[in-house]
Amino acid sequence: MQLIRVDALKPGMVLGEDLYGSEGELLLAKGQELTALHIARLASSVFEAVAICDNAVCDNDDLDSAPSKQIISETLRRNTTLALTSFYKAVHTGQRNSPQLFQRLKLHLEEIIDEILHDQGIVINIKTLKRYDDYTYQHSVNVAIISIAVGASMGMNRLALSRLGMGALLHDIGKIFIPKDIIRKPGRLSPEEHETVKQHTVLGYRYLSEHWDVPIEALVGVLSHHERCDGSGYPYGLRRERLSQEAKLIAICDVYDAMTSERPYRKALSPSEAMEHIIGNSGILFDEDLIERFFAKIEPYPVGTPVLLSNGYRGVVVENHKNALMRPKVAVGESEESNMCLDLLNDPRWWDVTIIGVDRKNNQECDPV
Ligand SMILES: [Fe+2]
Fold first, then answer.
1. What is the CA(157)–ligand 1 centre distance, in A?
2. What count of Cα atoms within 13 Å lies in the side-chain half-sphere of residue 245?
């Protein structure tokens, strides 16, 4: 089984996982043979890559057994997304105080922390976090998962992770109070509309502090997740020394997940492209120490990524080494050394070979250049 980008799917491929819509409804079941119609539907959704049952692209014993180990279980991720959807909808329809729904969110957050603490060796394949056809809720859950995973890798204790996770999960709650036509506008926002959207930080902070017993660290995360280290952010233009660790970490996770998500008005960047953008702003917009922690937990080239190598080969990443994420195993296609795997970390023959970029022309095949 491997992750295949939606634009590289072909009729006849067999789905290796269940796919769900924003209400938790089953869209396509595992084992479904994809038709052209299914693929067209997926292409117009927010799914970027799906697991496909297939023969491995090269001999690799690990592929069938562990194609993409997930940071938390699919069930928990779905339940958290559904709980967040219900909470947002209740608040939106005027039920500003829904204790059961809020309790459910807190419960799921604790479960997420449990699962992440249980296996801290896992690095995150961002593509496995893009499986629901609804951006708003999936994005918030993703930001929470990634923030908690990075926080755990930094040695934060359980209480600190709960506070961080709560801020991350609810970071955009203030958008409920912004007119929908502005939030959902597919094109560029006017300066006035942009100013309106910027209010979501203060509105979210105010709503949570007035209605719920939310820890101050989480509230500050919500209020400050658009602040930037150089003071160029909003709502107050605070500089790095006045920003909390939670706010600076949520900011990185928020931007990374947003950039790697397909939006109606732009294509998703690849994980490595988003990584380059964030690293390019290291110490300027984002905290450099946190960036280092962040990219020790995130795969820049998830399994299934088509890549260009400095020796001229095109290939597909088939396995990541968790302590050397820039040096994965890459399957290259038919050549003299047909269907071979280049282990960029362990095989001295390839130590001088680097990945020079994502191969956007070759989303699945392994043809050499
Ligand atoms: Fe935001």
1. 26
2. 15
Cα of 272 from ligand 1 centre, angstroms: 22
Centre of ligand 1 to C-alpha 243, Å, is 16
Beta strands in 10-157 (DSSP E): 14-15, 19-20, 26-28, 49-53
Centroid of ligand 1 to alpha carbon of 236 (angstroms): 14
The residue assigned the tokens 């560029």 is: 188
Distance 175 CA to ligand 1 centre (A): 8
CATH class of 74-295: mainly alpha
- Kindly list the domain boundaries of the chain, sorted by start residue: 1-67, 74-295, 305-369
Inter-CA distances, 245 with 220, 221, 320, 322, Å: 10, 9, 29, 25
The fold for domain 1-67 equals Molybdopterin biosynthesis moea protein, domain 2 (3.90.105)
Give distance in angstroms: CA of 171 to centre of ligand 1.
Answer: 6
**Nearby residues for ligand 1 (ion, Cβ within 5 Å):** 172
Q: How far does the centroid of ligand 1 lie from the alpha carbon of residue 74, in Å?
A: 25
Expressed in angstroms and rounded, the spacing between residue 172 Cα and the centre of ligand 1 is 5
Give, for all 369 residues of the chain, the pLDDT tens digit. Answer: 666 778 788 888 888 877 877 666 778 888 888 888 888 888 777 677 777 876 534 333 333 333 456 788 888 988 999 999 999 988 888 776 678 899 999 999 999 999 999 988 888 888 777 766 678 889 999 999 999 999 999 999 999 999 999 999 999 999 999 998 998 888 888 999 999 999 999 999 999 999 999 999 999 999 999 999 999 999 999 999 999 999 999 999 999 999 998 877 778 888 888 998 999 999 999 999 999 999 989 888 888 888 889 988 888 888 888 788 889 999 987 555 567 889 999 888 888 999 988 887 654 332 222
Instruction: Give the three-state DSSP class for 271.
Output: helix
Distance of CA 167 from the midpoint of ligand 1 (Å): 11
Tokens encoding 138: 């999936």
d(CA 42, CA 44) in angstroms, rounded, equals 5
State in Å: Cα 362 to ligand 1 middle.
34
